[in-house]
Amino acid sequence: MYFKGFGVEQSYEKAVDLFKKGVAQNFPAAMFMLGVCYENGFGIPENLSLAKEWYSNAALYDYAQAKAYLNKLNNASGLKSVEINQDNNLFNEFKQIGIIPDKYQRTHIDIDNDIQLAGNWDGEIIVYDWSGNEILEQQKVNLTITQTGYSISANWDSDMTHTTSKGFVQGNEVNFEELKLITEDALGGLSVEAIKNITFSIVKTDSAVYLKGSVDSYLPDQKEPSYPKLIVLKAGNSGSEYLVENEAVEQINAEISDSPIFNIYPNPFSHKLTIDYHIIKDGNVSIKLYNISGSKVMEIKPESFCAAGFYSHDVELDLNPGTYLIEIVQDETRQVRKVIKN
Predict the structure, then answer these.
(1) What's CA 270's distance to the chain center, in Å?
(2) Strands in the chain per DSSP E
(3) Separation between Cα atoms, residue 163 and residue 181, nearest integer Å
(4) 218: which of 20, 177, 179, 190 lies 20 to 30 Å off by Cα?
(5) pLDDT-based confidence at 268, cuts 50/70/90?
(6) Is the pTM of this model over 0.70?
(7) Are strands 135-148 and 296-306 parallel, antiparallel or unpaired?
(8) Are 239 and 128 in contact (CB under 8 A)?
(9) pLDDT beyond 70 at 257
(10) How far apart are CA 271 and CA 314, in angstroms?
């Protein structure tokens, strides 16, 4: 939990301390995770020899992931590191005007009316480590969207992915049904992720309009959220039109909103959901479940006072298959996520 920041404030250092305590009790999972930390320099100096040693120790307990990582390390001619292509004019443009931060920060800007995204957008998706301090990977992205009211159809092309998806817009949040992303780890292994939600903010300059978004993505195999990601897009040259009726615009380097941040997983789910949320400031918080027609099904968390901090709820839901909405409200601020019951 400390390693990934689920339910607690992310800290590699605290995670490493706990992995070492687990190693002292001969837990192979702790040996494997200590190897991950040594391989990547997470909370401890990078040391590939020690990474191999701890993967080998875990493999002696028949720990499958350790065997796979050890095999990749032994067969790797050289570890891949993220390289910022100096000829990537678009990425450099984003950096120059300050909309790709050095450290990952989730932003949330409330927009009263539904964002209008129809058109062609070019940009980058940037994958950060769990601490948000380092870029692990970047891919070029082209996103073409058609929109009718709140419904959208999206065509996504990135370096390793071509996929299409339906979805819907609510305020500045875009929810996708089947948007996939393939990412690559340092040793060339591939992961298939599902992008469930992007919370966009708008950046306008004298010459262009940009979208910056926090990406909520999910690893179906592990049934948990994946690395934090930022997507930055620029209106393309193929007739893109961008409109927000109330002209709500994020200024570059705007402060993070006081809105709560929350993730829901697994999604789709069978019977049990986990809701993680981070309250930025003290206030009254409630969480409710609605069906797709907008009728309230249940109160997951009745309104009550919450001090600023990290919270997590595990909820057993006996529901008919279908699409539902989960609403979190803090004082006057409301956010909604779509979930699917299998």
Answers:
(1) 22
(2) 119-128, 135-148, 151-158, 162-170, 173-184, 190-204, 209-219, 224-225, 229-235, 261-265, 272-279, 283-291, 296-306, 309-316, 322-330, 333-341
(3) 8
(4) 20
(5) confident
(6) no
(7) unpaired
(8) no
(9) no
(10) 10
